[in-house]
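Researcher: We're teaching a course module on how sequence relates to structure. For the next exercise, students receive a sequence and then see the predicted structure as tokens, so they can try to spot secondary structure elements on their own. Here is the exercise chain.
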Amino acid sequence: MASIALDLTDPHSVEWQRESAPVRYTAALEAMEERARAISAGEADELIWLLEHPPVYTAGTSADPAELVDPRFEVVEAGRGGRYTYHGPGQRVGYLMLDLGKRGKDVRCFVHAIEGWVIDTLATFDIEAWRCEGRVGIWTQDIDGREAKIGAIGVRVRRWVTLHGFSVNLDPDLSHFGGIVPCGIDEFGVTSMARLGKSITSEQWDEALIGQAGRFLGALETARQKACSK
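Model: And here is the predicted structure for the students to work with:
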């Protein structure tokens, strides 16, 4: 029997896991590492994991201790790129355990595709967001008219399998970001969908995100095909 080629642009080409209860960050980190090892060994499918955490500060590989202003919550070494960030209730996190070995082996394209995915999803709720050259993350116009961060991105790639991913502020306690200099950028604020007048549940966000996943996976596939044609 002839094998059927897997459509890598189909959201069903990966496993999705959605959590309704908060997951402790250290437990999620351990589970993510184990799943990535299994994917690398060919023992598990790719996974996109959507969840929230109890309040925690996480430190990336470039974290500067001077930017940990008020460590009022647990601080965990994350192993991802980037600096300090905050996770907590009201913030939806997406962990991506994808095999870039079959999706193009292009980390820059991977990050760019994540940004586009989040921007496209925010647009479904009438929130205009954008990338900013030299500043990692997702940006929008806050209620005071100034630019502010609404989403963070931090990834790691090991043996071409990705770990970590992105977070988007639905309705977190924004005062909790005051314990750190978020992602090392102190000249801009942090905002949320709720602050912008959008009352969105995690279920609504997940459904919209999944609805835009084909474009995200398609961007990776386009990059892979371009690389193969060179």
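Model: If you want an answer key for the exercise: Confidence is low (pLDDT under 50) at residues 1-5. Residues 125 and 198 are 7 Å apart (CA to CA).
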